[in-house]
UniProtKB/TrEMBL annotation, chain A:
Subcellular location: Cytoplasm; Nucleus
SUPFAM superfamilies noted in UniProt: N-terminal nucleophile aminohydrolases (Ntn hydrolases)
Name listed for the protein in its UniProt record: Proteasome subunit beta
Origin: domain of life: Eukaryota
Keywords, alphabetical: Cytoplasm, Nucleus, Proteasome
Primary role: Component of the proteasome, a multicatalytic proteinase complex which is characterized by its ability to cleave peptides with Arg, Phe, Tyr, Leu, and Glu adjacent to the leaving group at neutral or slightly basic pH. The proteasome has an ATP-dependent proteolytic activity.
This protein's GO CC annotations: cytoplasm; nucleus; proteasome core complex
PANTHER family: METALLOPROTEASE TLDD, PROTEASOME SUBUNIT BETA TYPE-1
Source organism of this protein record: Oncorhynchus mykiss (Rainbow trout)
Subunit structure: Component of the proteasome complex.
Coarse class of the protein's main subcellular location: cytoplasm
Protein's UniProt keywords contain Zinc: no
Gene behind the chain: PSB11
UniProtKB/TrEMBL annotation, chain B:
Keywords: Cytoplasm, Hydrolase, Nucleus, Protease, Proteasome, Threonine protease, Zymogen
Organism of this sequence: Oncorhynchus mykiss (Rainbow trout)
CDD domains reported in the protein's UniProt record: proteasome_beta_type_5
Similarity comment: Belongs to the peptidase T1B family.
Coiled-coil ranges per UniProt: none
Keyword Cytoplasm applies: yes
Protein name: Proteasome subunit beta
Secretion signal span: none
Length: 237, 272
């Protein structure tokens, strides 16, 4: 009997016994990695994602960005299981078209967020394994970020990180954008240039320490003039 | 079924989506019914597999879970106090969650358990309450609203919904407070605390409510203190304390206080 002790997902040790038959059930899900991040400013919003698509110990693609443009003022970042990400974005696009045809106007960011919540909850008992973050401009032209859990619980934030390196990025954002745990610091509003630089720095840090994040960074900057895309290389190892 | 009906009216084909995908788990039957028929099998396949430990790099899906909420009746209405932390496993997903759902200007619902479950079903309850108002030309009572919610979630009993909510309001009979959960409980009472930090909150409120006839300010302080103490001792509670007061004219939001500020405030009081 050969026993190896391995650290499991939550830090507790798992034991593997290589004896006897083991039942392997088919799992409809797989984890494809990737990190997404969104920041809302006074009159802009930034949605950024890495472009690595992995599965297990392999990398399927180095050029698979996770930001999808929905309307001229809204971008969604989806990470988790790639199959569900693709299907979900197709469904959202279809629903956007239906709304446009019925109501003769584009959906606002807030409306898209509320709709996505009900789409996700519709699959409450077989969830879409996707961590979504929507970034865009609200009706007043201010930046808005909406973050979701896989079954549709959502709220509006100023900044949010989701995906495999989210636990590493979120505390850094809390400190730099939210000024948390800093005493006697002036709360300056975030400018677009500073926000873009911060996003680049934050992803460089994530690529250092998370195996699923790396290769390249795709940044989508949403302003009233439209959506601008920028690609920055990251570590490829 | 409530869920399938609501979503069917909005999305044409998409309600078939889940049913087809569930096909490979349920071997033989193809049914046209909603979620209930594939309930048992679906639960063991979809939800449990998703939550069980994968081998190697596969991850669990983790939903956001809410925590300490409390509400109590007193002479001048109902006080509702909640924390604002949402956790996904051991990760704190957010410290600014709104756990009090404003159903309408005189009814409030609280959120504990699964965040998506609570917000979805209470939003549906808001819709049902509005339909009742339009049909009957009068406001819905707290008892009826809580009954609507309880009946909606009872159809999904055993399927893995996690919701522990309090429906609070003021109607013709005075202040109303009902506890409703996804197990099917619906209980009327004067004081409830729900969530992982509920025991700590009960301790504070029970001792504070002994002397009857609280003023509004005293009652608000009591609610605030109870949630603060719960966040102090419970790891899954924290963030801010959101306080609401329901009275005969409706509800109003009393305060939102950061727990760190409260800690310093109470610390100064004990040092004096």
């Amino acid at each position: 009997m050969f026993v190896t002790q391995v650290y499991g997902d939550n830090g507790k040790m798992k034991e593997y016994h290589y004896t006897g038959p083991v039942e392997h059930r088919f799992s409809p899900y797989s984890f494809n990695g990737g990190t997404v991040l969104a920041v809302a400013g006074e009159d802009f919003a930034i949605v950024a994602s890495d472009t690595r698509l992995s599965e297990g110990y392999s990398i399927h693609s180095r050029d698979s960005p996770k930001c999808y443009k929905l309307t001229d003022t809204t971008v969604i970042g989806c990470s988790g299981f790639h199959g569900d990400c693709l299907t979900l974005t197709k469904i959202i696009d279809a629903r956007l078209k239906m709304y446009k045809h019925s109501n003769n106007k584009c959906m606002t960011s807030g409306a898209i967020a509320a709709m996505l919540s009900t789409i996700l909850y519709g699959r409450r008992f077989f969830p879409y394994y996707v961590y979504n973050i929507i970034g865009g401009l609200d009706e007043e032209g201010k930046g808005a970020v909406y973050s979701f859990d896989p079954v549709g619980s959502y709220q509006r934030d100023t900044y949010k990180a989701g995906g495999s390196a989210s636990a590493m990025l979120q505390p850094l954002l809390d400190n730099q954008i939210g000024f948390k745990n800093m005493e006697g610091v002036q709360h300056l509003p975030l400018s677009q240039e500073k926000a873009v630089q911060l996003v680049k720095d934050v992803f460089i840090s994530a690529a250092e320490r998370d195996v699923y994040t790396g290769d390249a960074l795709r940044i989508c900057i949403v302003t009233k003039d439209g959506i601008k895309e920028e690609t920055v290389p990251l570590r490829k190892d | 079924m409530a869920l399938a009906n609501v979503l069917q009216s909005e999305s044409v084909d998409f309600s078939n989506y889940g049913r087809k995908c569930r096909g490979f788990s349920s071997s033989l039957y193809e049914t046209e019914l909603g979620l209930e028929s594939v309930g048992g099998d679906n639960l063991s396949f979809a939800v449990r597999t998703a939550c069980s430990d994968g081998d190697g790099p596969e991850r669990k899906i983790q939903f956001l879970h809410g925590t300490t909420t409390l509400a109590f009746k007193f002479q001048h209405g109902v006080i509702v106090a909640v924390d604002s932390r949402a956790t996904a496993g051991a990760y704190i997903a957010s410290q600014t969650v709104k756990k009090v759902i404003e159903i309408n200007p005189y009814l409030l619902g609280t959120m504990a358990g699964g965040a998506a479950d609570c917000s979805f079903w209470e939003r549906l309850l808001a819709r049902q309450c509005r339909v009742y108002e339009l049909r009957n030309k009068e406001r819905i009572s707290v008892a009826a609203a809580s009954k609507l919610l309880a009946n909606m979630v009872y159809q999904y009993k055993g399927m893995g919904l996690s919701m522990g909510t309090m429906v609070c309001g003021w109607d013709k009979t005075g202040p109303g407070l009902y506890y409703v959960d996804s197990e099917g409980n619906r209980v009327c009472g004067d004081l409830f605390a729900v969530g992982s930090g509920s025991m700590y909150a009960y301790g504070i409120v029970d001792s504070g409510l002994k002397q009857k006839d609280l003023t509004v300010e005293e009652a608000c302080d009591l609610g605030c203190r109870a949630i603060y103490q719960a966040t102090y001792r419970d790891a899954y509670s924290g963030g801010q304390v959101n306080l609401y007061h329901v009275h005969s004219e409706g509800w109003n939001r009393v305060s939102q206080s950061d727990v760190l500020m409260l800690h310093q405030q109470y610390q100064n009081l004990t040092d004096q």
